[in-house]
């Protein structure tokens, strides 16, 4: 059973990083920096609980805030350039963060053991959960509480004026600008919210793996982050969840019997999926169809 | 001072390969306004295909290997066009971007799978030649890399500015709709651009293999990042910009490797990019207005 709980933990964290890219994608910007914010959150939360002895919740709050602050700071120069330039700028930023942690040493001796990040060796012994006697199930429920909370928040955003503003900028910048929207403010705010979610996800990730190193935060993770919302479709937050479950649950775990070939399949599947469904699994027509379906069955049971 | 000059010259010579990769990104961007993220991987893939010759014909001269890498690169470029651009609606930039990222992972994994992840030795030419001026040396293999790259760039510029195909390519890049109205087959021009950039990528991959001495799948990520940085610094869509920026980035990283070590080197290249983004977001040779 612990295996499935572990899998659910992975899916939860990946959903969080996917959601962090989702809100940025809504404004039509592709950010490959989410892995960088994730790394910042992971190292920050790990250092706070291990070195400063904080409890998990304040540490996660701090990592989310730090992720937001970094994203906001990156957003201003990076968003001066549009579209494809942003892809490159954020890609370089993400790699920059990874290289920073590759060269980052900050060790403190605690009870005869040296703890803390050590460059290429990574950051070991982030043992908050085991030390406080959390079981795998507790951790899983803890993670999913945050996933549900984040999804609810984004779902509510989508239905509020803010969501409409984000989508307006994403659909047509010129039109959005001509109705008086401040493009930079909208994009940087989306980036900041995305950074907060990524920082939170990173903080959680650091604690359930107990060992983080720079290599985990490379381009592959950044790719996963934008792959979930794009594969799932930008129509709804559930698309991201669906894609994370599909990729992590089915492609990565379910196809383990294929051995090395599984990795080949992943790239090929993205290519095929984009050719067949360029707007993702849950695109606008599918969502409409689902909505009608639920409305009909809901109405039917109400009448009966 | 001598160390500095030595590092700078080595870096600039090696930078010629970055320039080739940068040209590939910039050309595709110029014509389609899209980024082909699979380009770095396809280039390394082309270089690996060159090695296949050694399997068939043991002891083939390096020139044959390079030529096969060149051809294989072109073929891979066409395949990337077909899988990631041809069938996906042009109005959906996210889907093409994601598809090329998928292609990047796929090519990377195919390389890892067929070579079992082991780095492979790559043949070089003139690697025993050393040009000495006092303490200062120029490595023969790096000079060969530089010469081949310059030759390819000259060929490309001739193709762009002296042939009908080049004229059509430039027309599509400037005004796609107008080019369409003039009877230029835009789809065909796009496909040809991918083949041409693929050919360049194949030779760039082979040159990198020749100057480093080994090929490894680990090359694809840094190559993609460096190529994209070169593209931005040079100005998106500008071929001369990519050439100058490539040589510049090569020299810059080599000098910083001398002073700050190999693990910190790339960090400073990223910083250089951000300096450009803040102070000169259009790059060295910014395209005049109206471009995204």
Would you give an account of this structure?
- The complex is a heterodimer of chains A (304) and B (292).
- Chain A has helices at residues 2-26, 34-50, 56-78, 83-102, 128-131, 136-159, 161-171, 173-178, 183-209, 219-232, 237-254, 261-276, 284-303, and strands spanning 108-110, 113-115.
- Chain A has 304 residues and is mainly alpha-helical.
- Chain A has one domain (2-303): ABC transporter involved in vitamin B12 uptake, BtuC (Orthogonal Bundle), CATH 1.10.3470.
- In chain A, a hairpin with a 2-residue loop joins strand 1 and strand 2 (113-115).
- Chain A is globular and about 60 Å long.
- Chain A starts with a helix and ends with a helix.
- Chain B has a domain at 23-220.
- Helices cover 75% and strands 4% of the residues of chain B.
- Chain B is built from eleven helices and four strands, in the order ααααβββααααβααα.
- Chain B has helices spanning 2-32, 39-56, 62-86, 93-115, 140-162, 164-174, 176-181, 186-212, 220-234, 239-260, 262-279, and strands spanning 120-121, 130-133, 136-139, 214-215.
- In chain B, strands 1-4 form a two-stranded antiparallel sheet. Chain B has a two-stranded antiparallel sheet with strand order 2-3.
- In chain B, helix 3 packs antiparallel against helix 4 (93-115) and helix 6 (164-174) packs across helix 8 (186-212).
- Report the count of strand segments of chain A: 2
Name the average pLDDT of chain B.
Answer: 86
Q: Could you name the CATH topology of chain A?
A: ABC transporter involved in vitamin B12 uptake, BtuC
Name the helix and strand elements of chain A from N-terminus to C-terminus, one letter apiece.
Answer: HHHHEEHHHHHHHHH
* Residues in β-strands, percent of chain B: under 5%
Instruction: For the record, give the distance between the C-alpha atoms at the N and C termini of chain B, rounded to a whole number.
Output: 42 Å
């Amino acid at each position: 059973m612990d295996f499935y709980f572990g899998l659910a933990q992975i899916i939860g964290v990946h959903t969080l990083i996917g959601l962090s890219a989702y809100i940025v994608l809504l404004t039509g910007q592709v950010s490959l920096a989410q892995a960088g914010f994730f790394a910042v959150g992971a190292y920050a939360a790990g250092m706070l609980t291990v070195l400063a002895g904080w409890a998990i919740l304040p540490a996660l709050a701090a990592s989310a805030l730090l992720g937001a602050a970094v994203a906001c700071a990156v957003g201003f120069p990076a968003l001066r350039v549009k579209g494809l330039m942003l892809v490159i700028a954020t890609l370089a930023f993400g790699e920059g963060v990874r290289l920073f942690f590759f060269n980052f040493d900050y060790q403190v001796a605690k009870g005869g053991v040296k703890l803390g990040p050590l460059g290429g060796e990574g950051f070991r012994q982030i043992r908050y959960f085991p030390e406080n006697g959390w079981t795998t199930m507790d951790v899983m429920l803890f993670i999913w509480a945050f996933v549900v909370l984040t999804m609810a928040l984004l779902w509510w955003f989508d239905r509020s004026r803010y969501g409409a503003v984000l989508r307006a900028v994403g659909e047509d910048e010129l039109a959005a600008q001509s109705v008086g929207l401040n493009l930079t403010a909208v994009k940087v705010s989306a980036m900041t919210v995305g950074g907060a979610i990524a920082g939170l996800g990173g903080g959680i990730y650091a604690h359930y793996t107990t060992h983080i190193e720079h290599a985990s935060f490379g381009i592959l993770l950044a790719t996963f982050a934008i792959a979930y919302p794009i594969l799932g479709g930008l129509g709804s937050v559930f698309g991201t969840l669906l894609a994370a479950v599909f990729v992590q649950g089915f492609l990565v775990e379910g196809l383990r019997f294929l051995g090395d070939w599984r990795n080949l399949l992943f790239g090929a599947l993205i290519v095929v999926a984009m050719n067949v469904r360029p707007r993702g699994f849950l695109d606008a027509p599918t969502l409409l169809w689902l909505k009608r379906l639920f409305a009909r069955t809901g109405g039917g049971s109400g009448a009966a | 001072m001598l160390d500095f000059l030595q590092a700078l010259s080595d870096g600039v010579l090696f930078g010629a390969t970055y320039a080739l990769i940068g040209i590939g990104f910039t050309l595709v961007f110029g014509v389609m306004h899209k980024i082909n993220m699979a380009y770095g991987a396809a280039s390394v893939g082309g270089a690996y295909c060159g090695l296949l010759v050694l399997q068939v014909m043991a002891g083939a001269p390096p020139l044959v290997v390079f030529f096969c890498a060149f051809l294989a690169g072109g073929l891979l470029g066409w395949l990337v066009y077909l899988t990631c651009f041809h069938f996906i609606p042009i109005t959906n930039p996210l889907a093409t971007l994601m598809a090329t990222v998928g292609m990047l992972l796929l090519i990377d994994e195919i390389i890892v799978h067929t070579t079992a992840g082991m780095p492979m030795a790559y043949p070089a030419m003139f690697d025993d030649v050393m040009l000495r001026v006092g303490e200062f040396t120029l490595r023969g293999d790096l000079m060969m890399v530089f010469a081949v790259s310059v030759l390819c760039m000259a060929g490309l510029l001739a193709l762009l500015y002296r042939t009908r195909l080049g004229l059509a390519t430039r027309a599509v890049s400037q005004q796609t709709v107008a080019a369409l109205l003039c009877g230029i087959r835009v789809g065909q021009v796009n496909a040809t651009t991918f083949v041409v950039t693929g050919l360049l990528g194949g030779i760039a991959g082979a040159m990198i293999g020749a100057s480093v001495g080994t090929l490894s799948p680990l090359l694809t990520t840094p190559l993609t990042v460096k190529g994209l940085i070169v593209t931005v610094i040079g100005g998106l869509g500008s071929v001369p910009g990519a050439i100058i920026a490539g040589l510049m980035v090569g020299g810059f990283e080599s000098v910083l490797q001398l002073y700050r070590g190999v693990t910190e080197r790339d960090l400073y290249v990223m910083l250089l990019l951000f300096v450009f983004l803040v102070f000169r977001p259009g790059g060295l040779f910014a395209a005049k207005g109206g471009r995204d």
